[in-house]
Amino acid sequence: MAKILIVEDNHDLLEFFCLLMEKHGFEVKGASSRIEIDSHLLLFKPDLIMMDVMLHGEDGRDICKEIKSNHKHLPIILLSGNPQVLSNFSEYHADDVIEKPFTIGTVINKVKEIIAQNSHKKLEENIK
After folding, report:
1. How much is the pLDDT for 86?
2. Residues ≥6 apart with Cβ < 8 Å to 13
3. Spatial distance between the Cα atoms of 89 and 80, rounded to a whole number of angstroms
């Protein structure tokens, strides 16, 4: 079972994403701040991070870039209602974006696709 860390400072959206991912068979942890992310990276060891761009006084894009500097193979999907902040997501080393508003199908499909791609990459690396 793949593990997903969801980073969202809106409690209702965080709860929604957690329930949605659990319903689709994922193990899930939620976080609403940078401090929580660090502990989950160490203890939970997620297979994927879904992160809102606008977090209370923090920019999820910058957090993404920091995480990728130490965990470059950990896929991260950025979420935002502002398409302009998502347009340069590759500069922050994010693997994909989801624009709000979104459909449930879009979220689930992107998550499954990225987890499958990352699993395939890990398998290829282990074979080498």
Report:
1. 74
2. 52
3. 11
Q: Are 76 and 110 in contact (CB under 8 A)?
A: no
* Alpha carbon 107 to its chain's center: 11
**Does the predicted TM-score (pTM) go above 0.90?**
yes
Residues pairing with 4 in the sheet: 28, 48
Q: Where are any strands of DSSP class E within 1-128? A: 3-7, 27-31, 48-52, 54-55, 58-59, 76-80, 96-99
Q: To 10 degrees, what angle do helices 60-70 and 34-43 make?
A: 30
Amino acid identity at 64? C
Tell me the pLDDT tens digit for each residue of 34-78: 889 999 999 999 999 999 999 988 999 999 999 999 998 999 999
d(CA 48, CA 18): 13
